[in-house]
Write a structure and sequence with these properties.
disordered N terminus; 8 helices; 2 domains; single chain; Glutaredoxin; alpha+beta; 14 strands
Length: 314
């Protein structure tokens, strides 16, 4: 993903990707509708710059509902957790451009319910659903509350594409022959979770043929660079315990095997290749007719999965 540089953002009262320019500079640019004017108002109301904002995905597509997960990090380096965030968006990399921002939108905080954070892993995620009307480099401004009650403000550039190589909501799911306990199909191990998860009983193709809703998860708990593949699968397993056999749950690893050379060279699994992913983890919820109902890139929690899957299982 292209990130807007610091010079671009600071030039002529611009925002920085990890913070905002000083209010004295902002005031000169607050005469016309712009994201800069929103930032100026929030700082004047007592918000503090320095919130670091990280998008949880990189495959956002114009004209379709996009799940936008956000990693928010306070100036002390710890996750900004426990409070909902407010978000404003504009379809430009120039925050001072005369464009009416969209927002504020709420990005609710949802904590993980089935997994315990390890190390610097966040205890949950902020996320919202947004339909970007056009492809562009968008600027996203976020505000949330820090652990000491201070309102924190930060921004990030987000690339929105015109098309995706992977299936979108409304597309038919690809009936991949994913690895199972009986047939690894060249993938070893078929699950890097410890212990291996129970989501390898049937192939994705067979799951789709059952004419039941399907939750298809692609992620590598042991080698996931974002450190959210493991928590995600625990959240999914928690939902599976509630849903039972009203839906079929299938997991596929992202890598062909766990050899160090394979990981270093990014040699991916057949399912990862067939679905044309460029990142992990991914969760697809598929309806009874085999059509993708929703897709989630990056961190996702059990409440979100449960809410989206509920109408599919009836």
């Amino acid at each position: 993903m292209r990130e807007v540089g610091r010079r671009e953002f600071l030039r002529s009262c611009g925002l920085a990707t990890a913070g905002l320019a000083a209010p004295a500079v902002l005031s000169a640019c607050a005469r016309k509708p712009s994201l800069q004017r929103v930032a100026d108002a929030r700082l004047a109301a007592g918000a503090r710059q320095g919130l670091k904002v990280f998008p949880g995905g990189q495959d956002y597509v114009a004209g379709t509902d996009s799940y936008v997960a956000l990693g928010l990090v306070a100036p002390d380096g710890l996750p900004a957790a426990g409070h909902d965030a407010r978000v404003w968006l504009t379809p430009t990399a120039n925050p001072k451009a005369t464009v009416n921002p969209v927002g504020p939108l709420t990005a609710p905080w949802r904590g993980y319910t089935e997994s315990t954070p390890v190390g610097s892993s966040p205890p949950g995620v902020h996320a919202l659903e947004f339909r970007f009307p056009r492809a562009a480099i968008w600027t996203l401004l976020a505000e949330t509350t820090g652990s000491d009650g201070t309102r924190l403000l930060g921004s990030v550039a987000v690339e929105v594409k015109a098309h995706s190589a992977s299936p979108l909501p409304g597309d038919r799911a690809i009936p991949s022959q994913t690895p199972t306990l009986r047939d690894h199909r060249g993938v070893d191990p078929i699950c890097t979770r410890e212990p291996p998860c129970p989501l390898h009983e049937v192939t994705l193709a067979d799951a789709l043929a059952l004419r039941r809703p399907v939750a298809f998860y692609v992620g590598t708990p042991k080698f996931c660079q974002s450190r959210v593949c493991g928590p995600n699968i625990e959240e999914l397993l928690g939902v599976r315990r509630e849903i039972g056999d009203r839906a079929t749950f299938v997991h596929a690893e992202g890598y062909l095997n766990d050899d160090g050379d394979t990981i270093a060279k990014q040699i991916v699994s057949p399912a990862f290749l067939e679905w044309r992913f460029e990142s992990e983890p991914w969760l697809f919820l598929i309806d009874r007719s085999g059509v993708v109902a929703a897709r989630f890139e990056g961190p996702v929690t059990a409440p979100v999965i449960r809410e989206t899957l509920a109408p599919l299982v009836g």
